[in-house]
Amino acid sequence: MISYRTRLSLCQFLALQDAYVCTVLLNKAGVDEELHPAMLLRGLTHALTGAGQVALMQVLDEVVRTQGDLRSPVSPKHRFDERWSDLVQCLVLDGYLIEGKQLRAGAPSMGDAAPIDDDLLHELSTCGTPRANDIIRRINESSDAFRRTPPNYNASLNDARVALETLAVDIAHARSAPAGGGFEPTKWGSVIQYLRSSGLITLEEERGLAGVYGFISPGSHRPLGVSEEQMARLGRSLALNLCWFLLKRQLAA
Question: What is residue 91's three-state secondary structure?
């Protein structure tokens, strides 16, 4: 599924076009919206953030197939290129690839999977975790680093890892005795061992957390046969999914 972040990037990209061109493009996909030049970006945001996934994919499909035509009227061209690059990277974060003039899911089930960023950021904003704002900032910085020109994949993975570390330590503190203690907050092994001993996770889940943490640590991954971009997306996705897992498990407890 397409994330909120990608919807906004698509709005910014289409705002480079004539308002009537955008209206026709949206209407072809079943999005009934009449856009006006003076409020084009606002109108696009209203239409595309509320559009269903099917309609949104139809808009994206035509955008990808006709990118040359859409680029033609834009001047200077770097405006198109920069917004196109941002949209492409947002799609990659959602698990979609552009090959030639086709948009395809990076995995067979990707089209049905809800974007983890949207759900996680929403849950963090309401859960009351002490450092929720710091975790949200790190997740957004991870996304920004991935979309940067040129992308900084190491920074993207590092921010995702720090978000996971911060959340795990906050949860461990929440489960510890009022006097504190029981784990060393600067050591990942100690933190997840405490989460297990306090009853939050099982031994198998502790091993999974240790494995993912090792995978996303600096210098640990070897992108042989896999592009650095896809390796970074995979590592980031694993980290955010574990943030979601720990947060939901703690809230349920």
Answer: helix
Q: Are 61 and 103 in contact (CB under 8 A)?
A: yes
d(CA 203, CA 96): 34
pLDDT 10s digits, 193-208: 999 999 999 999 999 9
Q: Which long-range contacts (CB under 8 A, 24 or more apart) does 182-188 make?
A: 188/213
Task: State which amino acid sits at residue 138.
Answer: R
What value does the mean pLDDT of the chain take?
91
Provide the percentage of residues in the chain whose pLDDT is more than 70. Answer: 92
DSSP per residue, 127-141: H--TTHHHHHHHHHH
What does each C-alpha distance from 220 to 20, 46, 187, 192, 212 come to in angstroms?
50, 42, 17, 20, 10
Both tokens of 2, joined, read 């397409």
Any idea which residue has 């197939």 for tokens? 65
For residue 73, say if its preceding peptide bond is cis, omega within 30 degrees of 0.
Answer: no
Provide the total of helices (H) and of strands (E) in the chain, helices listed first: 12, 2
Give the start-to-end residue ranges of the domains of the chain: 4-112, 116-252
Joined together, the tokens standing for residue 191 give 């933190």
CATH of region 116-252: 1.20.120
